[in-house]
UniProtKB/TrEMBL annotation:
Pfam families: Xre-like-HTH, Xre_MbcA_ParS_C. Coiled coil: none annotated. It comes from Sphingobium fuliginis (strain ATCC 27551). InterPro entries: Xre-like_HTH (IPR046847), Xre/MbcA/ParS-like_toxin-bd (IPR024467). It comes from the Bacteria. This is DUF2384 domain-containing protein. Residues 39-95 form the Antitoxin Xre-like helix-turn-helix domain. Residues 1-34 are annotated as: Disordered.
Amino acid sequence: MAGLSKGIQPSARRTAATARESAMSIEKRGTNEVSENLGGPALRTFFGIADAWHLSEAEQMKLLAISRRPTLHRWRVGKAARLGRDRLERISYVLGIFKAINILLPDPARASAWMRAANSADVFGGGTALERMSRGNVADLYVVRQYLDAQLS
């Protein structure tokens, strides 16, 4: 990703501020309270990113590790019970990936296109970042996040 601009868009700064506030909340509260209080904001953030990346419902379901479309629809309109730790972790990685790619590629169209572009880096094996992220394992989200964080340094 050499030669990429490192300017930060205002939306990326807002997203980073939200992530910092969420992290501070997690440190101050117990796990159950965090799940109840962060589920709504986490899902709103996720769906905003899903819209920015033009994710299909199937792609959203893979990233959230849900198997039922009605669950996705309920969550999108804000009718979520509390989210488990796994789903909060998934959303956290998606948020970090979104933040990093928007720092590296501040043009939203380029950032979105990168998610779907074939990539020759070893971690992608010629596939796309979205394909790697959609394999179903939290570890795959982590690998993409780690790759982008390395590009930032």
